[in-house]
Amino acid sequence: MADINNFTSLDIKDYSDYDFVDFNIVSESNKEYGRVSRVLGSKITSLLEVSYLEKSYLIPINEAFIITVNKKEKSIVVKNIEEISSL
Predict the structure, then answer these.
(1) What order of strands is seen across the sheet that includes strand 47-52?
(2) Phi/psi of residue 18, each to 5°?
(3) Cα-based distances in Å from 62 to 40, 65, 68, 74, 77
(4) pTM
């Protein structure tokens, strides 16, 4: 399993699809925007499926969207999550 505490060193090929399941998705201001229900796609284009307020949305697993991953706290900080979650 990859060290996912530091997203910038994350190699997508080194983690299991289950590594992020049940992680909380949070904004830069630490507001919660749901929980990862599963990981979709291939190792090249993986997406987090997030459940929030009786709906689901997808977040690509890449540095353009994900700021940090905290394995100990089971949380992922996502850029512009307010806009993503409202789509």
Answers:
(1) 55-60, 47-52, 32-40, 24-26, 75-78, 66-70
(2) -90, -5
(3) 14, 6, 10, 17, 12
(4) 0.79
Kindly give, in sequence order, each residue whose CB lies less than 8 Å from that of residue 33, ignoring residues fewer than 6 positions away.
25, 26, 27, 50, 52, 78, 81, 82, 85
* Cβ(26)–Cβ(80) below 8 Å: no
Counting Cα atoms < 13 Å in the Cβ hemisphere of 67 gives 12
Q: How many Å apart are CA 23 and CA 67, to the nearest integer?
A: 14
Which residues 6+ apart lie within 8 Å of 31 measured at CB? none
In the chain, the domains with their CATH numbers are 7-85 (2.30.30.240)
Q: Give residue for tokens 């590594």.
A: 19
d(CA 18, CA 71): 12
d(CA 49, CA 8): 21
**Which stretches in the chain have pLDDT values below 70?**
1-17, 42-43
